[in-house]
Write a structure and sequence with these properties.
This protein is α/β, with parallel strands linked by helices. It has a domain of 179 residues: Vaccinia Virus protein VP39 (Rossmann fold), CATH 3.40.50.150. The chain is 45% helix and 22% strand. It is built from nine helices and ten strands. It is globular.
């Protein structure tokens, strides 16, 4: 699986920050679908393991939480931290969900993926595979972004460059920046029916706070952007400087984040 954001220490830190920001939204969705003690969970594209932590807290010592990710070093480090924190029901499997079936035998009561379909070439095929891993009576849950509405109020030109460079690089890499909105249709194609429910979570924050994430996301896609011709080194440097200046000059401008859209269906 090609990860447009790259695999660097800075990107891993950004992923952990992002996970903490959306922890309440994801936790609420897990509670909505009734994740209970003793459940068997699979976190597809588990990354730094923060969603596995939310699952482990709910399923308890009698449950099981398996994370799968193509980045073996990141996944193993995540599970090591979870086990050190007392979540011994967590384990990790290295594998590319687009190329093979890396999941242990046996269905799962919860199959979950957050911000994973946005990064795959064929979301329907991956979602279909996730549905197959869902045990009868279990639930498939997905959360993904619709990034098209990211905005500042009042507007600033620096966000136009983020949209051009960041979203443009995603599009050039063949990724759908509005995928979250398509989740119901993707569920229908992959599972044969629309989701049982959807949950849309928004976020508005000060530019002084949000600017760090804008800077980090642009920085993470810059190497791929340079390869694809959507970003130059000069543009990347100018964006970071302009954003730092905007954060100082306009700290209270209000930033609308991508919508985090969740969908779930019981098998």
């Amino acid at each position: 699986m090609t990860y447009v954001m790259g695999r660097t220490a800075a990107e891993y830190a950004r992923l952990r920050d992002q996970a903490r920001i959306w922890a309440d939204a994801t936790g609420t969705l897990l509670d909505t679908v009734g994740l209970a003690p003793g459940a068997r969970c699979l976190d597809v594209g588990c990354g730094p393991g923060e969603t596995m932590r939310l699952m482990a807290q709910r399923v308890g010592a009698t449950g099981r939480v398996v994370g799968v990710d193509v980045d073996g070093d990141l996944g193993r480090a995540a599970v090591d931290r979870l086990v050190e924190d007392g979540h011994r029901q967590c384990e990790f499997v290295e594998g590319d969900i687009e190329r093979a079936d890396p999941v242990p035998d046996g269905g799962f009561d919860l199959v979950f993926g957050r911000l994973i379909l946005l990064h795959v070439a064929d979301p329907v095929a991956v979602l279909r595979r996730m549905w197959e891993w869902t045990a009868p009576g279990g639930t498939l849950v997905v959360q993904d972004y619709d990034m098209r509405g990211v905005a500042l109020d009042p507007p600033l030109p620096v966000l136009d460059e983020w949209r051009r460079g960041f979203l443009g690089t995603y599009a050039a890499a063949g990724r759908d920046v509005g995928l979250g909105h398509r989740l119901p249709r993707l569920f229908a194609e992959a599972t044969g029916a629309l989701p049982d429910g959807t949950v849309v979570t928004g976020r508005i924050d000060r530019l002084a706070t949000t600017g760090g994430m804008l800077a980090a996301t642009y920085r993470s896609v810059t190497p791929v952007g340079i390869t694809l011709g959507t970003i130059t080194e000069a543009q990347a440097q100018r964006f970071q400087a302009d954003l730092a200046e905007a954060m100082t000059a306009h700290p209270d401008h209000q930033a609308l984040w991508p919508l985090l859209i969740g969908a779930h269906r019981r098998r």
